[in-house]
Amino acid sequence: MSADDIASLRYVGVGVPDFSGERNWVTSIWGLPEVALDGGTAYFAAASSPHAYVYRVRAAKEKRLDVIAFAVAGEAAVDARAERLAASGVKLISEPNRLAGPGGGYGFRFFDIDGRTVEISSGVAERSPRELNRGESIPATLTHVVLHTPDIKKSVAFYEKYLGLRVSDWLGEFMCFLRCNSVHHCLAFLPGPACLNHVAFEMRSLDEMMRGTSRLVNEGVVLGWGPGRHTAGNNTFAYFLAPSGNVLEYTAEVQRIDETSWNPTVYTPSPDITDQWGTGSLYGGGPQKLGAPAPDSGLWKPPPV
Question: Could you say which of 115, 120, 130, 143 would form a disulfide bridge with 300 (CB–CB 3.0 to 4.6 Å)?
Answer without folding.
Answer: 115
